[in-house]
Amino acid sequence: MSQAPDDADTDDYDAEDLVQYFDTRIADSPKDEYVLGAKFVREWQSLRLRSDVTQTIFDDFMSRIEATETAGAAYAHLWITVRNWGYLLGFTVPRNPPPRLTGHGNSTLCMSNTGFETQTTIGKTYEVLELDHERSLVRIANDQQENQWYPCKLFQFPVTLEREFVQQPDW
Hints:
Layout (H helix, E strand, L loop, with lengths): L11 H17 L3 H18 L5 H12 L6 H16 L10 H4 L4 E4 L14 E3 L2 E3 L4 E5 L5 E5 L3 E2 L2 H8 L5
Antiparallel strand pairs: 1-2, 1-6, 3-4, 4-5
């Protein structure tokens, strides 16, 4: 069995919260990304009831989530929740979501550097190295080229990431 992910726990509330999140988004804006997200959550709920889920079935489901064209917190949260479920079933699981789901490779604009005046520059664009959805932090290479974590509230994100990550409801 693989090493336990740092956040390797999953409860029923995760599934219900995910269903509610995607259903609320569909009601607000019936975009394909939300419809697909809701479909994945319901499929995962169905898989959880089956006793014949194998590593292959699990890997196939994870790869379909990873292939989703829309990056964002909801998909990263779904991926982490399903990964934790796989871990609890004894499957080999990856430790981290694919960079595309977490926002890696996107850029962010520094809007404030309060408390970090010597490390970041207002108005400068930085590459997003990683987003921590739980703590609302973004990791960037700062002005000294050191990879550091900073509060998301100091940055302006692209519309896709801002809609899905910065403004997401608390899980």
